[in-house]
Amino acid sequence: MSDNNAVYIGNKSIMNYVLAVITQFNTQGAKEVKIKARGKAISRAVDVAEMVRNRFLTDVKVKEINIGTDKIENEDGKVVNVSTIEIVLTR
Amino acid sequence: MSDNNAVYIGNKSIMNYVLAVITQFNTQGAKEVKIKARGKAISRAVDVAEMVRNRFLTDVKVKEINIGTDKIENEDGKVVNVSTIEIVLTR
């Protein structure tokens, strides 16, 4: 779920990812944490960023948000485009 | 769906919104178009921005992306937080 200051949003509950972000800032002393997601998980990435900032770490700011498109192979082996987001939080 | 250079993402098909953005740039001569969405529609807002930029108006750039939280009243009259996104495209 998280490595080198990045938290990848999947299908777990949002609180899992909120805690992962808080852990990176508080326990691992990160100055910057990147929340990354693709496709439908993009909305949850924004939820996580907003929940961290509004309820837990009110001094954390959004430094930058990047969107993009990845090409992935779906179950049928077809290459499809999927949107991506990266929300960079900083302290 | 769209007013004063803003396109609000709802439940229609993505192409509706892609066309709305293209119309604002091409027909109404807008220099800037804002794609706005809340909750689960946030992922579709990113899809629309990426589809416009990759397939239709390749000179359009992402100027800025803002996220936030709105407080809305749900069907039971309870006030809940919902995430928001605003993607500012520019030419």
Helix content of chain A: 25-40%
Give the full name of the CATH homologous superfamily of chain A.
Answer: Alba-like domain
- Most extensive protein-chain contact, per-chain counts: A-B, 21 and 21 residues
Estimated radius of gyration of chain A: 14 Å
Global outline of chain A: elongated
Q: What is the N-to-C order of secondary-structure elements of chain A (H for helix, E for strand)?
A: EEHEHEE
State the low-pLDDT regions of chain A, or none.
Answer: none
GO molecular function (chains A, B): double-stranded DNA binding; RNA binding
Organism (chains A, B): Methanotorris igneus (strain DSM 5666 / JCM 11834 / Kol 5)
Function (chains A, B): Binds double-stranded DNA tightly but without sequence specificity. Involved in DNA compaction.
Main location (chains A, B): cytoplasm
How would you describe this protein?
The structure is a homodimer of 91-residue chains. Chain A is α+β, with helices and mostly antiparallel strands and 91 residues long. Chain A has one domain (3-90): 2-Layer Sandwich (Translation Initiation Factor IF3). Chain A is 32% helix and 41% strand. The first copy, chain A, has a five-stranded mixed sheet, covered by helices on one side. The model of chain A has no long low-confidence stretch (mean pLDDT 95). The interface between A and B is medium-sized, with 21 and 21 residues.
What's the arrangement of secondary structure elements?
2 copies of one chain form a homodimer.
Chain A: E1 2-3, E2 6-8, H1 14-26, E3 32-38, H2 41-56, E4 61-73, E5 79-90
Parallel strand pairs in A: 2-3
Antiparallel strand pairs in A: 1-2, 3-5, 4-5
